[in-house]
Amino acid sequence: MDLSGFAAILLDLDGTVYHEEHALPGAVELIRRLQQRGRTYACLTNSTSSPQRISARLKRMGVGVDPAHIYTAAAATADYVLDRFAGRPIPRVFNLSTEGIHEMLDGRVEWVQSESEECEAVICGVPLNVFATPERQRTAMLLLRKGAELVAICADRIYPSPRGLEFGVGAMAAMLTYAADVRPVYCGKPEKLFFHELCRRLGVEPAHCVLVGDNLESDIAGARSVGMRTILTLTGITTQADVAELPPDRRPDRVISDLRDLADATL
Question: How many CA atoms, within 13 angstroms, populate the side-chain half-sphere of residue 56?
């Protein structure tokens, strides 16, 4: 397989590079090859964590990736909020999401703490986080009903954890959407704004990129929507049978068993 003609190689993380706290076959070797050859690459994920935290996680798996090469849905959310309210003296934000969001936006926004304050945006994460207590969920709903914009880190309905499936950001956003009668903005994959901002950071055009991922909806469909080429790996949630059921115009360009299949690819 020849990947040398692409301006950037994009690697999904969960289900492609790692599963929970373990690197998947061929992942560490591929990233190291990209680094040794000086290729433009990025690791992307719908994680609600910051790039710095993901970098530390990868290091524990045996591969060093600078946070500049990592783009998370949480980072995309921070970018969106700062861009969306750039004309304001300082955006007023209620954090219903994660510590990662707090770290990325602290000092750049004014944190709203109560329903009586003015608020431009409510940032929504998963229900299981330190900022999403029942009382804070109620405060978020009241702020949204008063006119704040609902900004959700991603639209994932569920996500896997060591104990099984958990409610995702999309599930929390759906509850708030219904209760406050608002329309959310989603910032993670498969949204076009996620991929466009990533490419802007890398200085490449989407049409000149190839994405390797395991999820037909967030990875493959999302990348195809902005003109990227795609490679599906079967190490995550998608099976060969899932691919066979797709119409030809929605299938990935290539299907591989795992990243070891790229061991001999020309980079």
Answer: 5
